[in-house]
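REQUEST FORM: STRUCTURE PREDICTION
Request ID: SP-0412
Submitted by: Lab K.M.
Chain count: 1
Length (residues): 279
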Amino acid sequence: MRYIIYKVLLSLIHITIIDVIDILIVAYLLYKLYQLIKGTAAMKIFFAIAIIYLVWLLVKALKMELLESIMGQVIGIGVIALIVLFQQEVRQLLLMIGDKYFKRGAILGKVKLLNDFSHEAVESIVQASVEMAETKTGALMVITREVSLQTIIQTGEKLNADVNTQLIKAIFYKNAPLHDGAMIIEKNRIVAAKCILPVSQNPNLPNEYGLRHRSGLGVSEITDALVVIVSEQSGSISVAQNGKIHKVSDGEHLKKTIIAYLRKKSDSKKEHKAEKEGD
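STATUS: Completed
RESULT:
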C-alpha cells in the first residue's frame, strides 16, 4: 500500500534534476536583484509586480481563460516596462555577472599577489593614477614588497587605511594637508602619507624630472619598492623600480607593471613575462 502511495506521489510531483536547477537559478537571480534594489523605491514596485505575477499564475491554474488572457497581455507588456523601470538595476546586475564570471582573471584564475595584496587595491591605485594624471595632480605612491620602509614611514603621518581611489585622490589634492611627500602602501593598506624619501643623485636624469621623480627613483635604488609617480607639470605617469624609471603609456600598462611586481616568487617565469609586457 505504501509503495502504491509513493508511486502515485512521485507521478504527481515528477521533479527532475532540470527542475531543481531551474528553481536554483531563478532563486539566485531574484536574490541578486533583491540585493540591488534593497532600500530603494524600486523595492515596492518589484513586490507589486511579483504579486500580480502570482495572481496570474493562480488564474492560469484555475483555467479562468478570459482573465488569464488579459493578464497575460499585461504581463507581456510589463516585461518592457520592467526594463525601463529597472534599467539601472538591470545594468548593475549584468555588470556584476560580467565582472565575476567573464573577466580574464576570473576565468583563468587571478594570480596570487604578495603581502595579501588584492587585485581591487591594484585597480584603485591605477584608477587614481589615471584620474590624477588627467587633472595634473602630482602624486608619489610607494608600494612595498619585502624590504621594510619603517624608517621612512616614521617621517610621515600614519593612516592605516584601505586602499581606495577616492582616498588616494583626496590625499594628493593640491590643497590637502597631506599632499606633499610620499604615500606608503604596504600589505594592501595605506600605512602613511606625507613621507620624506631619499633623493636620487643620478646625474643622468632628464631635466624634466623634478624632486618628486628624483625621490621616487631614490627609494627604488635602496629598496625593492615600486614607486608610481604622477607628474604635476605634464600629467604623465612614471614607474620607478630597481633604480630605473620609465613612463607608462596608459592605465592598462600601469596595471600590468604593478601586478608583475607583486607576483609571488613561485610565479617567477610568469613574472618575467609580465614584466616584459609591462615594459
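NOTES: The beta strands are 139-143, 157-162, 182-186, 189-195, 226-230, 237-241, 244-248.
Reviewed by: T.R.
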